[in-house]
C-alpha cells in the first residue's frame, strides 16, 4: 500500500479498503466499457463519518475520488481510470426509517432501486421511478444522475421524489438539505442542485424519498406500427383517451436483437416500429375502452397489429422486448446517444436525425428506442465486426458533433437521462450556454474547493 493509503487506513481503522487487481477492475468501470480501469484503490465506507473522513483525507493528499453506486451508468460518470480512489457506497444499503404521516422512506445511498421498491411496498406504497437496471443500479446513483426511466410520463424524474438529502460536500462537511419538508421557501434549494450533479458537488449519504399510492391495475399492450409518424399519432391518441403509465417505442432492428437474445416473439410478421404501452385498466369498462382505442388506431392505419397481455407473465414477456434491448446490444459495444427534445419537436427532430444518420452511417446498424412520450430517444450505433474500437469511436464522435448541432437547432439536450460524465463532456456546450457553464464552474468550486470530487466528469476542472 502507498503511504497515502496507509494514512487513510491509519485514520479510519475500520474502513474496508480493496486493492487487488480484480477489485480495481470491477469497481473502476461502469457499463460504458470504454476506459481501462486504473483506480488507486477502492474504499467501502459503512458510515457517514467514514465518508467524511475519506473526503477530508482526499483534500489533504490531493487524491481524486470517484463516488460509486451500481455503476450501471452509460456516460462514464463512475469510471476511475486515472489513479483515483473509488468511494463505493454499496455497504451503505439499509432502510433507515419510514414516516407514515409524510409517506417517506429514508434510505442509504447504496440500496439497489429494486430493494427500494420492495421496501416501499411493505408499507402499501410505491416509489415510482423505474427502469430496466433496477436490480443493479443504486438509489444514490439514480439521484446523482436524476435518473428517468419508463414511467416518467406518469411520475416524472427522480428529482420529483426526493424530499430530503444528506450530503458530504467536497470539503467533508455534512449538509442536511431540505429535511424532507414539503414547503420550504427559505432560499436556494441545494437539494435540487445536488440531484443530477453526477457526484461533482457532494456525496449523497442519505436520502428521504417520497412514496405514493400504487396505481390501479394496468394493462400492457404491444403494438406494431408502419412508421414514426404513426408512433407519434398513436401516442397522441392514447394520451388523450387512456390514463398512460408508460409509452415506449423501439424499431424492428431492436426487436431482432432482443429476440436473438432470448426474448419471445409476441406478434407475427415484421414491422418497422413497435410500442409497449401500459395504462390504467381497473375494470371491464376501462378494458373495453382500451380495445376501442386500439380499434380506432387500426382504422386510422396507424396501428398494423397489436396484442394485449392476459396475465402478469405475458405482460412481463412484452416488457422484456423493450427492457432487454440494452443487454442484447452490449456484445456490439454500441456507441450510445441519449437525447431529448420537447415533445412537440420530436417529429421534426426525428426526421432531421434520420436523414443525418442515413447520410453518415449508410452501412452501420443504428438501433432506436426510448421514451417517446418524454421526447427521449436512445440511439445506439453498433460497431461493425472487424472495425477497430478507436476508428469506430472516432466515427461516432464525428456524428455526435453533427447530432449535437441538430439538437441545438431543435432546442434539445445531448443527455436526457444518462448524464454527461466523460462521454458527453465534449458536447455539453451544445445544450448549456457559456454563461451557464461558467456558473456551473463557480458552483462546483464552492462545493468542492480542491476539486477532489469526480474530476473530469461533466466538465474539466481548471
Ligand atoms: C433505457 O433502456 O431506457 C436506457 O436508458 C438504456 C439506453 C441504452 O442502452 O442506450
From TrEMBL:
Known cofactor(s): FAD
Statement: the UniProt record of this protein carries the keyword Flavoprotein: yes
Keyword list, A-Z: FAD, Flavoprotein, Oxidoreductase
FAD-binding PCMH-type domain residues: 35-214
Matches recorded under Pfam families: FAD-oxidase_C (PF02913), FAD_binding_4 (PF01565)
Similarity field: Belongs to the FAD-binding oxidoreductase/transferase type 4 family.
Protein name: FAD-binding oxidoreductase
Amino acid at each position: 500500500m502507498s503511504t497515502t493509503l496507509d494514512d487513510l487506513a491509519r485514520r479510519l481503522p475500520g474502513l474496508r479498503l480493496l486493492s487487488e487487481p480484480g477489485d480495481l477492475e470491477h469497481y473502476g468501470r461502469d457499463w460504458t466499457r470504454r476506459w481501462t480501469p486504473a483506480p488507486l484503490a477502492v474504499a467501502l465506507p459503512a458510515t457517514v463519518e467514514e465518508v467524511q473522513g475519506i473526503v477530508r483525507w482526499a483534500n489533504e493528499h490531493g487524491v481524486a475520488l470517484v463516488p460509486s453506486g451500481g455503476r450501471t451508468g452509460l456516460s462514464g460518470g463512475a469510471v476511475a481510470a486515472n489513479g483515483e480512489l473509488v468511494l463505493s457506497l454499496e455497504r451503505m444499503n439499509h432502510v433507515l426509517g419510514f414516516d407514515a404521516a409524510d409517506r417517506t422512506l429514508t434510505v442509504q445511498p447504496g440500496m439497489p432501486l429494486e430493494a427500494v421498491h420492495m421496501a416501499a411496498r411493505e408499507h402499501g406504497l410505491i416509489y415510482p421511478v423505474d427502469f430496466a437496471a433496477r436490480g443493479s443500479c443504486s438509489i444514490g446513483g439514480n439521484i446523482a444522475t436524476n435518473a428517468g426511466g419508463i414511467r416518467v410520463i406518469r411520475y416524472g424524474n427522480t428529482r420529483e421524489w426526493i424530499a430530503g438529502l444528506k450530503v458530504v460536500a467536497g470539503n467533508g462537511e455534512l449538509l442536511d438539505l431540505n429535511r424532507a419538508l414539503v414547503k420550504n421557501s427559505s432560499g436556494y434549494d441545494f437539494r435540487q442542485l445536488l440531484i443530477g450533479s453526477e457526484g461533482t458537488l457532494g456525496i449523497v449519504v442519505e436520502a428521504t424519498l417520497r412514496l405514493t399510492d400504487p396505481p390501479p391495475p394496468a394493462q400492457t399492450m404491444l403494438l406494431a406500427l408502419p412508421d414514426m409518424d404513426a408512433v407519434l399519432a398513436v401516442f397522441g391518441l392514447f394520451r388523450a383517451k387512456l390514463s398512460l403509465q408508460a409509452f415506449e417505442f423501439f424499431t424492428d432492428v431492436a426487436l431482432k436483437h432482443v429476440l436473438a437474445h432470448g426474448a419471445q416473439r409476441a406478434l407475427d410478421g415484421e414491422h418497422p416500429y413497435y410500442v409497449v404501452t401500459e395504462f390504467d385498466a381497473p375494470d371491464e369498462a376501462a378494458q373495453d375502452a382500451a380495445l376501442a382505442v386500439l380499434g380506432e388506431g387500426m382504422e386510422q392505419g396507424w396501428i398494423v397489429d397489436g396484442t394485449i397481455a392476459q396475465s402478469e407473465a405475458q405482460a412481463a414477456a412484452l416488457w422484456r422486448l423493450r427492457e432487454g434491448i440494452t443487454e442484447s446490444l452490449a456484445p456490439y459495444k454500441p456507441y450510445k446517444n441519449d437525447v431529448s427534445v420537447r415533445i412537440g419537436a420530436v417529429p421534426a427532430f426525428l426526421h432531421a436525425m434520420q436523414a443525418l444518420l442515413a447520410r453518415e452511417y449508410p452501412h452501420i446498424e443504428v438501433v432506436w428506442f426510448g421514451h417517446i412520450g418524454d421526447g427521449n430517444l436512445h440511439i445506439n450505433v453498433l460497431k461493425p465486426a472487424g472495425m477497430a474500437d478507436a476508428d469506430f469511436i472516432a466515427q461516432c464522435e464525428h456524428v455526435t458533433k453533427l447530432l449535437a448541432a441538430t439538437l441545438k437547432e431543435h432546442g434539445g439536450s445531448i443527455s436526457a437521462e444518462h448524464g454527461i460524465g466523460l462521454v458527453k463532456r465534449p458536447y455539453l456546450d451544445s445544450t448549456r450556454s457559456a454563461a451557464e457553464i461558467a456558473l456551473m464552474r463557480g458552483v462546483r468550486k464552492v462545493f468542492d474547493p480542491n476539486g477532489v470530487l469526480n474530476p473530469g466528469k461533466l466538465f474539466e476542472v481548471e
